[in-house]
Specification:
Layout (H helix, E strand, L loop, with lengths): L3 H15 L39 H14 L6 H9 L25 H14 L3 H13 L17 H13 L8 E2 L2 E2 H6 L29 H11 L31 H18 L5 E2 L7 E2 L1 H13 L7 H10 L5 E2 L2 E2 L1 H14 L11 H7 L9 H9 L24 H32 L17
Antiparallel strand pairs: 1-2, 3-4, 5-6
Helix pairs in contact: 1-14, 2-4, 2-12, 4-5, 4-6, 6-8, 8-9, 8-10, 9-10, 10-11, 10-12, 11-12, 12-13
């Protein structure tokens, strides 16, 4: 039974958590250093997660945040949900952001990616059937003749947009194989971007963003990672699902075959490609921009983990998830506080992999995301317990990182943390016993014994 003081502490922690502070700095409400912050040219609405300019990602980041927090048992405020539903246009689609919701939308500026994600978020939350139905109708209406989707209506189809549209159809139980335009289904559209048996063996199963000018497909890691979830027939949020006994296998190709991969091989083939790419990148996908050195692509790595789990290969996603846990804190930080899209993706990864969202490489992802937006209506007991147990460590980066190198994996499971704690306790007891014995020996000998050497503690902060 809790003492009166403990009960008072729990009540205080609960109140702080609901207020979005939890005795730790609210990143989204903290002013960035004067030499790095650049004020948003757009007034950030009160119901929106994050403080940066929402012009290009307002609906996207709001949808991700609502999806991730819902999966964590957090009930968002009506203001946050109302902001998202209020962004929907009269024809059912969503733009990336519209500051004036009283004005009519322009179809050409509506965003298929934002619409697909908003549909998934409102489907997960429940109680928004009318908005979801209109959103799905919009998605179907703007399918291209090749079966795919473009970022804005009327553009050229791309793998990322097509994959997200398929995710939305799956989430709302609309069969992508039955959603077609001019005889080409949504799965046909997705398959048109996947490299098949005519590609070099190392590239088979990958997805291109779009065909090149010659029509050739070039593998793209981000396109492959985002399309993988759709190829596996999945949507957000990703559950653990069924586990396959064997690792992801390369596609089966007959000698001389150059055709596209059949749908039944699509998910397995892209999973195999992603596993190889993650291994080559030390368990993260890399991004290479012209004139710059390759850098870790946290976004693509997160989607790859989700796609592998949806395809039934959680074991092959474990190392990449651990890498994200050990190195993802910096990705969540921006000039104006928390990047809610990054925090939400990491929270979705933690939920899909079973890693602790309250100690994801030392970061409390739930609290970080809560802090970046409006006060939630309620939080689960686990969130209150986490804030009560260690309020000062809520935003502590890298406390579970094993070393100082970015390549180190830092995602400890709870069992590892318990084991490490047990080792430290036993080591401390042995050290204390040895010290007392040495002291007694020194007293008898009339001299001071040398102190024993001590090893560096594991889990040193970056």
């Amino acid at each position: 039974m809790l003492s009166a003081a403990a009960r008072a502490g729990a009540v205080l922690a609960s109140a702080l958590l609901l207020a979005g502070t939890a005795a730790a700095p609210a990143l989204a409400d903290s002013a960035a250093p004067a030499d790095t912050a650049s004020p948003s040219p757009v007034a950030v609405p009160a119901g929106l997660y994050g403080k940066s300019d929402p012009t290009y990602d307002g609906v996207w980041r709001q949808s991700l945040a609502l999806l991730a927090l819902h999966g964590a048992g957090v009930k968002p405020s009506t203001q946050a949900v109302g902001w998202l539903t209020g962004q929907q246009c009269g024809d059912g689609g969503w733009p990336s952001f519209r500051a004036d919701t009283g004005s009519d939308c322009t179809t050409a500026t509506e965003d298929s990616n934002a619409t697909a994600l908003a549909v998934q978020a409102l489907t997960a939350l429940g109680g928004h059937d009318a908005a979801v139905t209109k959103g799905v109708t919009w998605i179907k209406r703007h399918q291209n003749p090749d079966g795919g989707w473009s970022y804005n209506p009327g553009g050229t189809s791309d793998a990322n947009s097509t994959g997200l549209a398929v995710n939305a159809l799956v989430a709302t139980k609309a069969d992508p194989a039955a959603v077609a335009k001019r005889g080409h289904s949504a799965y046909d559209g997705l398959a048109s971007f996947q490299l098949g048996c005519g590609a070099p063996a190392a590239q088979r199963g990958a997805f291109a963003y779009q065909p090149g000018k010659s029509g050739a497909l070039a593998p793209n890691d981000l396109a492959s990672a985002q399309a993988a979830l759709a190829a596996a027939g999945g949507s957000l949020p990703v559950a653990a699902g069924s586990r396959k006994d064997k690792p992801a296998a390369a596609p089966t190709c007959q000698a001389g075959s150059k055709g596209a991969l059949p749908q039944g091989q699509s998910a397995e083939a892209v999973a195999h490609f992603l596993v190889q790419r993650l291994a080559a990148g030390k368990q993260r996908l890399m991004q290479t921009l012209p004139g710059a050195d390759p850098t870790p692509d946290y976004n693509a790595t997160s989607w790859a983990v989700l796609g592998l789990i949806a395809a039934g290969h959680p074991d092959q996603a474990t190392d990449a998830a651990d890498w994200l846990a050990g190195n993802g804190y910096s990705w969540m930080q921006g000039d104006q506080g928390t990047n809610p899209s990054a925090a939400a993706e990491l929270l979705l990864v933690s939920q899909a992999t079973g890693l602790d969202p309250y100690n994801f490489g030392g970061s409390n992802l739930v609290q970080i995301l809560v802090n970046s937006g409006p006060t939630p209506a309620s939080v689960p007991p686990a969130a209150v317990a986490a804030a009560t147990a260690s309020p000062s460590a809520t935003l502590q980066p890298g406390s579970a990182v094993t070393g100082t190198d970015e390549d180190d994996n830092g995602g400890f499971s709870l069992s590892w943390l318990i084991a490490i704690a047990a080792v430290l306790v036993v080591s401390a007891a042995v050290f204390a016993f040895a010290s007392r014995r040495n002291d007694r020996a020194a007293a008898r000998a009339g001299e001071t014994a040398a102190a024993p050497d001590t090893a560096a503690a594991p889990g040193e902060d970056r």
